[in-house]
Fold Riboflavin biosynthesis protein RibD.
Amino acid sequence: MNVIDDEYYMGLALDMAERALGQTGVNPVVGAVVVKDGVLVGLGTHLQRGTPHAEVHALNMAGSNAEGSTVYVSLEPCSHYGLTPPCAERLIQEKVKRVVVACEDPNPQVAGRGIAMLQNSGIEVKAGVLRERAIKLNRKFIKFISTGLPYVTIKTASTLDGKIASKTGDSKWISNEGSRELVHTLRHRHQAIMVGVSTIIADDPQLTTRLSVPGLSPIRLIVDSKLRIPTTAKVLNDNLAKTVILTTEQADQNKAAYLTEHGIQLIYCGDNAQVDLQLALKQLGQQGISSVLVEGGGHINGSLLQGKLVDEVVLFFAPKLIGGVNAPSSFVFDGYDLMQDAISLREMEVEQIGDNICIRGIPVWS
Ligand code: AOF
Ligand code: ZN
């Protein structure tokens, strides 16, 4: 049984926000709860960019009960005119008594001003209730709004000896169905999915979100420095989601023209033999992509790691050992001489899914 206190109501605001993960684009997920004299009178969630913020939905539901109420919001109420008016102003107009906030809004246009506006109007503000959970929930938004770069999650599915295919290239299936459902949930929650052209050549995947209920498919990003992608590839022809190719100035111009004519966007990322992944992420950020799920292969995963461009790894392991000196591995890069230089992960989470194991962690970039 839960004790009824500030955390109890904030937990509800966070639960609602969590369910909207994946559908707010570059915006954060936010939940709001209005409580008057011990009664829940308003609930709201920010659903999509350009639609009302969480507080507005919750206050609309509360109606005249908003006056004298306590409002729980999982993110500091905004103080600026964006696509919608400032929530702090609305809370003041409604004469709420107290506002409880989980975490401050790192958006430079807000950054403490929302809380200050409320306090200056005599509203009691308590900040930091379930702060850690709120920060974790909006880690993609926080990275994007403070750096302009998308949040990068690498997902791998490998044998226990770290192989993503056998020496002959066979990879169907390594992980179990439960793991694959989680992967599709990850796809729903990212704005874009990234693979190398070798994956397209080897597997011709759809890279869409397929769950037991409808999900959101991410934009498909193909890293293809020489434009080797077959014109028959599903991602170029199925119209199931947008496809963007990340390439270089060295790519064949005739192929580039063909792809452009067929509605495929090309983004040029340097004139080296390989796509400059740092430049790629910068340009994706500029185009409003705030999160990228990387599904390999090993060379892209390795290059991203070496470039310190990774924010999170989600590693699925199946209880198999396949061996093969040249069988593809999840992370291919030069590596480090000493164990003390190895990339370590913090905030490790381990989950068992049937006979598979999912390990999540945040790489430490010192
Ligand atoms: C809130 N409550 O529910 C959300 C907030 O373009 P707009 O008008 O949607 O504003 C987006 C910014 O507002 C976003 O970057 C973040 O700082 C804040 N989001 N704030 O008070 C909400 N979604
Ligand atoms: Zn707002």
